[in-house]
Design goal:
about 150 residues, 7 helices
């Protein structure tokens, strides 16, 4: 049976269930907001314990990255992400998951050729473009301030 691209597209669309966009957006909003609220509460707790704002923020970032990597290793993060969608992927927890998941998946191929290479498959471009963008923004800022 040969189908044109249009016919194949219609066939696929007929089997595809509509996505509950509003429900997905609400779950992402509340879960992502919950993660950020918990992080803010932790920052306030560390500030109350005597840490300055920058140190408290750094400690909370480390805690969130560690928690996401641990939950990824335990296989729990994927279940939460499947339920909450982008709500778990947008905060720093999503970045930690993007580094930890491929590393765990390919560890059987060895530490260098498996884990280390695959660990930066997703995170590598983010780091490269993030650093490049920050350099470009810095140059633009210096140029604007010199005028």
């Amino acid at each position: 049976m040969e189908l044109s691209n249009e016919e194949y597209g219609r066939l696929v669309d007929s089997y595809q269930q509509p996505s509950p966009i509003l429900k997905n957006c609400l779950w992402a909003f509340f879960v992502g907001g919950g993660i950020c609220t918990a992080a803010q509460l932790l920052i306030h707790a560390f500030r109350a314990a005597g840490l300055d704002k920058d140190t408290a923020s750094t400690v909370v970032s480390v805690i969130l990255v560690f928690a996401a990597a641990l939950l990824t290793g335990l296989g729990v993060f994927d279940s939460i992400a499947r339920f909450a969608g982008a709500g778990t992927l947008v905060p720093i927890t999503g970045f930690a998951n993007a580094v930890a998941a491929p590393a765990l998946e390919f560890k059987t191929e060895g530490y260098v050729t498996g884990m280390a290479v695959k660990m930066f498959t997703v995170a590598g471009p983010v780091i490269v473009y993030g650093v490049t963008a920050s350099v470009i923004y810095g140059i633009i800022l210096v140029l604007l301030q010199s005028f």
